[in-house]
Every structure is written in structure tokens, then in C-alpha cells.
Amino acid sequence: MDPVWELLIGWVVLSGFLGFVLMGIDKARAQNRGWRISERKFFLMALAGGAFGISLGGTLFLHKTWKASFMGTVLLF
N or C: which end of the chain has fewer CB within 10 A? Predict the structure, then answer.
């Protein structure tokens, strides 16, 4: 496989994983009324390739799924 594709696939997997983890952290903070991660940071992570992880994390953690504008924007990236 071409090294460029390997790097691209690795980047998407890593950013997806980070997006997933961020959703879990934000859900835990929301439940404990702690400091939250801004939607802007989620949008930047989605733009960087983490949209799949964010949407998967939102679904599994039941976090921000009711907010259609948020999930719609994430899925656009």
C-alpha cells in the first residue's frame, strides 16, 4: 500500500478515536456538572477527520444526539 494512504487511514482512525473519547469525556463532565468541551472543539475535531468517532460516541453515550443542529453539522464534515 502507498505510504500516503497509510498515513491518511491512520490519521482518520486516530482522529475518530479521539473524537469518540472526547464525547465520552464531555458526557461524564455533563453528568458531574463539570467544565465542558465546547461545540467549536468538536466541530474542529470533526473537520480534522473525527466525525465518525464523534457521531459514534454521541450514539453510544447518548450525548448530544437530541441536538440535531450539532449532529447535522458534525456529519457534514
Answer: N
Question: Cell for 31?
Answer: 453528568
* Cβ atoms of 75 and 67 closer than 8 Å: no
Residue type, 54: I
Q: Which residue has cell 458534525? A: 74
Q: Are 40 and 46 in contact (CB under 8 A)?
A: no
* The model's pTM: 0.86
- How far is it, in rounded angstroms, from Cα 10 to Cα 4? 10
pLDDT tens digit sequence for 17-75? 999 999 999 999 999 998 999 999 999 999 999 999 999 998 899 888 777 788 888 87
Question: What is the sign of the dihedral through the CA atoms of 29, 20, 70 and 67?
Answer: negative
